[in-house]
Amino acid sequence: MTYYQSLATLILRLGLGILVMLHGISKILHPGSLDFIAGKLGNFGLPGELAYLVYVGEILGPLMIIFGYFNRLGAIFIVINMVTAILLVHTAELFKLTSNGGWALELQGLYLLGAVAVALLGTGKYALRPD
Known about the structure:
By secondary structure, the chain is mainly α. It has helices at about 5-30, 35-45, 55-65, 70-90, 105-120.
């Protein structure tokens, strides 16, 4: 991987990791949001305790990709988190556009596809555990 590819990978890792982790930090600061997730899981017949797994996808996974430590696994955690969020909360918006013509799930889509890209790219050379 060239210098510029490693730098671009680092920028992608840092951007995705920090932005997703902010959602996890918000859930830590406002634990009532887990009740919402638990309720959605209950609607699908799943135990509400699974809501705590959001911390894997929004805290642990982002930290793993930020530091480049088992980067691909951290990215997979984010992918699973985003697919779950889309299925539990956003299915009604899946094929909708905003009034400005953008996809209603732009943010979720960018997080999901960014995590897929990080999983495929690996860490580059700027990481605690380079590929």
